[in-house]
């Protein structure tokens, strides 16, 4: 291993492949050398000016009356949120809980069953839906990788 004492960074022996984004030796580990990453775009998931119970959260109500829609209704009940309000009418704490979860155990009904689950937030629910093979490409945007800033290489290669 080599090291730079000035910037306190250590790295492996450099070789030509260290400067190729087509090689695991040089490619940014975060974006795999693409320079961009796809991530959920909140503006595509949520319409802040539509009442919550009228489809404001597109990723949930796109699968109308789904498990997640029932869970959402339970979340609103448990947290005293009026689902007739728009997202932009909620306070910051309510907005954050809705988007990112707050650990609240919520009770809700789904297919004749009473369930109790923690509220994970809209963002995590969208990722869960993606894992279940539901197409979320309409809710995603391509953004420059924050690790390599679009340069496609590892930090050690970029620092030379």
TrEMBL record:
InterPro entries: UvrA_DNA-bd. It holds the Pfam family UvrA_DNA-bind. GO terms for cellular component: cytoplasm. It is found in: Cytoplasm. GO terms for molecular function: ATP binding; DNA binding; nuclease activity; zinc ion binding. Keywords: ATP-binding, Cytoplasm, DNA damage, DNA excision, DNA repair, DNA-binding, Excision nuclease, Metal-binding, Nucleotide-binding, Repeat, Zinc, Zinc-finger. One of its GO terms (biological process) is DNA repair. Residues 41-140 form the UvrA DNA-binding domain. This is Excinuclease ABC subunit A.
């Amino acid at each position: 291993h080599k090291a730079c004492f000035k910037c306190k960074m250590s790295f492996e022996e450099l070789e030509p492949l260290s400067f190729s984004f087509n090689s695991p030796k040089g490619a940014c580990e975060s974006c795999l050398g693409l320079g961009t990453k796809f991530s959920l775009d909140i503006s595509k998931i949520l319409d802040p000016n539509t009442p919550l119970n009228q489809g404001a959260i597109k990723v949930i109500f796109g699968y109308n009356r789904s498990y997640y829609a029932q869970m959402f209704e339970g979340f609103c009940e448990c947290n005293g949120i009026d689902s007739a309000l728009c997202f932009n009418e909620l306070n910051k704490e309510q907005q954050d809980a809705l988007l990112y979860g707050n650990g609240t155990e919520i009770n809700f009904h789904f297919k004749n069953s009473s369930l109790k689950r923690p509220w994970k937030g809209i963002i995590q629910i969208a990722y869960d839906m993606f894992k279940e093979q539901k197409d979320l490409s309409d809710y995603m945007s391509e953004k420059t990788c924050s690790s390599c800033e679009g340069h496609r290489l590892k930090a050690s290669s970029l620092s030379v």
